[in-house]
Amino acid sequence: MAEDLILSVVTGSRAYGLQTGASDTDRRGVFVAPTEAFWRLDKPATHRDGPLPEQFSWEVERFCALALQANPTVLECLWSPITEVITPFGERLVAMRGAFLSARAQQTFARYAEAQFRRIDPAAPKWKQAMHMIRLLRGGLHLVRHGDLMIDVGDDRERLLAVRRGEVSWPEVVAWHDALLAELDSTRCALPATPGKTAVDDFLIDVRRAHL
After folding, report:
1. CB 67 within 8 A of CB 74
2. Which pLDDT value is given to residue 1?
3. Residue 24 burial (CB < 10 Å; 0-12/13-18/19+)?
4. Which CATH number fits domain 5-101+194-210: 1.10.4030, 3.30.70, 2.30.29, 3.30.460?
5. In Å, what is the CA distance from 104 to each residue of 127, 140, 156, 180, 192?
6. Cα separation, 153 vs 181, whole angstroms
7. Average pLDDT, the chain
8. Per-residue pLDDT tens for 74-124?
9. Domain segments of the chain: what residues?
């Protein structure tokens, strides 16, 4: 693992409880660029791939910006049940994960799921994509109802894996999608209207000072 990582977690099927024997290990992380690197005209990279297969990391400022926008992929990192690297700043980041949440998530989770749904060809569905579309809607619904992001799919595991195997008809998948989307749209949101941007700013300032 890179020395500048403050957080690295396992995401994807292994975190969701949807892994099979053929599942990859998807890793997502947060790294910190040296503060002096921002003084140049050429700024540090906002993200990077590797060094391990299926590993992707964001620079801490970019990660925080995306989390404040309620990006589902980024938020899931803060709730992953499988942590491989965590430093004191990583612990602080996870501890303040609630500061990133806002009612905006109600729209972003629906929008991301709908983008996946529109990309699926009903004549030849990509069943893995359909499974994750349903999983995303379930996660978004739990988040806006309870103010906490559900990662493991729990009791719906077998039904979701049946979707992945193509054992659930496309009309049944559409009906499941429609029901979840309607619930997500109509549920009274338990999240605050705006995220805790001041707390995030304070965190970033401390990170930059520590890496100067």
Report:
1. yes
2. 62
3. exposed
4. 3.30.460
5. 28, 11, 26, 17, 9
6. 17
7. 96
8. 999 999 999 999 999 999 999 999 999 999 999 999 999 999 999 999 999
9. 5-101+194-210, 105-186
